[in-house]
Amino acid sequence: MKESVENTLSFLGGTTLLAGQVLRELCRWPFPTKLTMEQIYQVGIRSIPLVFITAASTGMVMSLQFGLGLEKFGGKMYVPKIVSLSIIREMGPVFTCLMLAARVGAGITSEIGSMTVTQQIDALRALGTSPIKKVVLPRVFACMIAIPLLVALANTIGVIGGLIVGANDLGLDPRFYVQKIFETVTLADYFSGFAKAPFFALAISIVACYYGLSVREGTRGVGSATTRSVVTSSIFILVGDYLLTKGFWVLGQWL
Amino acid sequence: MAVIDVKHFQKSFRGKTVHRDISFSVREGECLGLIGGSGVGKSVILRSLIGLEKADGGRIMIEGEDITRFSEKELTPIRVKVAYVFQNGALFDSLTVYENLAFPLKEHTALNDHEIEKRITAQLAEFGLSGNEALYPNQLSGGMQKRVGIARSIIIGPKVILYDEPTAGLDPYNTLKIQEMILRLKEKGVTSILVTHDMPTAFAVCDRFCLIGEGRIRARGTREELESEKEGYLQSFIRGEKGV
Fold it and tell me: Are strands B191-196 and B160-164 parallel, antiparallel or unpaired?
């Protein structure tokens, strides 16, 4: 119990300090542009197939399930509204970020963990450079840019996936489907989902970098750090989703 | 004046004391050998000299400057003049040999690309590594990785070099190559500390020795002084007897 509390406090303190160091390095010239561009390619471009498959299948399955379920009550025409709202407000950002926590988060932790174990992180320090600037900042920044764009892509693909199933399997008119989407989904809906992406991106990248830098038990430690990284960032995404949804809802009431 | 001066250095890890009281100094141009069995914390001392580990007590002076409580930013100029050669080379595996050597030059000098290329070509030739510029670390042998590691560490011309087990796991040919390199750098006036339990290498390159054990310095002196010592632990260590 005591150890568990200590580990939790050490994690919270460590990630907060790391986020602070990233922010400080962000303000120091020069910005590692080349390294960041490489990471945007790794995080963004190389995740597109995964995001595409996740979003398309989510949209298609939701459309099919709601269509078949609501058909019994004569409510099939509500499928476009329900599916598009669910994807844009919740499913798009959450499912995409959960998949990216597994793909990107695990990749970052294992890469940095291996660098730690093979003393490459120490070598950076010994050569008078900052591992935060050279290793952490490019990955965090790349996630902050690429993940929201991937979420936007996932929202579009998910809605299109729902539309394809709606038209082909449920017999809904595609023009009716598109019309209902535009009637239902407002800009506020879109942003209440999309605005979660930067928070999730920060959680994935900071948690992944923290665990990578914390590897202490050789190659065995890299494996367990990677598992912890994926589990922790997934929990952050799921719990954070509720808190952010509630926060945006309260904000919406005020405005 | 001593280039490196360590006074009453103490270090513990998770409540376990590794060093209770370590004091030594290294004069300019001298090579000091830190010797001792595996796990006595020789590398911990070396890492502390450039702030990779923080001392729990005592003082570490580099050229008269107390670096014991320096921040990472304050340590940068120290790390430029004190190079660290890692046991396994610690080369950046995503970079080629050329890029590994170019890294410190790009970080700490204002050299242009042409000057960097000239410097790297000369350095690789000096270390017998010409023609390997485009290779990645995993395409090099262990001996070559260590030589590239040394080449990278010294390419910006440090005043002090800290060698952490530079000959560990190497065949006699590569061990000899590393010894020659260390001696060549010593002839140029570079101050160095060699952490090793490879006694032939230590005797070949070091001027003085400190035998580390039980968190303190158990013996110190030149090779002749150590060999004439009657201390049982020291003699067992030098002769490679079991239990050390």
Answer: parallel
User: If you average pLDDT over residues A58-73, what whole number do you get?
Assistant: 93
Q: What ipTM describes this predicted complex?
A: 0.91
pTM across the whole model: 0.90
What tokens were used for A210? 């923290």
> How confident is residue A166, by pLDDT bands cut at 50, 70 and 90?
very high
- Helices B113-126 and B97-108: angle between axes, nearest 10 degrees: 130
B104/A119 CB distance under 8 A? no
Cα A246 to its chain centre, rounded Å, is 18
Q: Contact, A208 vs A233, CB < 8 A?
A: yes
Asked whether the CA dihedral B98, A42, A139, A231 is positive or negative, the reply is negative
- Contact flag B77-A123 (C-beta cutoff 8 Å): no
A118: contact with B, CB 8 A cutoff: yes
Find out whether A76 and A176 touch, Cβ atoms under 8 Å: no
Contact across the interface for A127 and B86, Cβ inside 8 Å: no
CB atoms within 10 A of CB B6: 25
Contacts of B172 by beta carbon, 8 Å cutoff, 6+ apart: none
Model pLDDT for residues A16-34, shown as the tens digit of each residue: 999 999 999 999 888 999 9
Q: Listing from the earlier edge strand, what are the strands of the sheet with B57-62? A: B65-66, B57-62, B2-13, B16-27, B216-221, B208-213, B31-35, B191-196, B160-164, B82-85
CA A174/CA A172 separation, integer angstroms: 6
A-contacting residues in B 154-213 (Cβ below 8 Å): none
Size of interface A-B (CB pairs under 8 A): 49
Summarize pLDDT for B136-175 with one digit per residue, the tens.
999 999 889 989 999 999 999 899 999 999 988 888 888 8
A100 close to A203: Cβ distance less than 8 angstroms: no
- Specify whether the backbone of B193 is left (phi greater than 0), alpha (psi in -120 to 50) or beta: beta
The whole-angstrom separation of Cα A97 and Cα A240 is 12
> Rounded CA gap, A185 and A252, in Å?
15
CA–CA separation, B76 vs B135, rounded Å? Answer: 29
- B126, amino acid identity: E
Closest approach of A219 to chain B, Cα-based (Å): 15
Kindly list the residues from chain B whose CB atom is less than 8 angstroms away from the CB atom of residue A119.
Answer: 86-88, 90
Contacts of residue A1, defined as CB under 8 A and 6 or more positions apart, other chains included, come to none
A140 closest CA partner among A20, A1, A5: A20
Instruction: Please state whether the peptide bond connecting residue A148 to the residue before it is cis, i.e. omega within 30 degrees of 0.
Output: no
Domain boundaries, chain A: 33-247
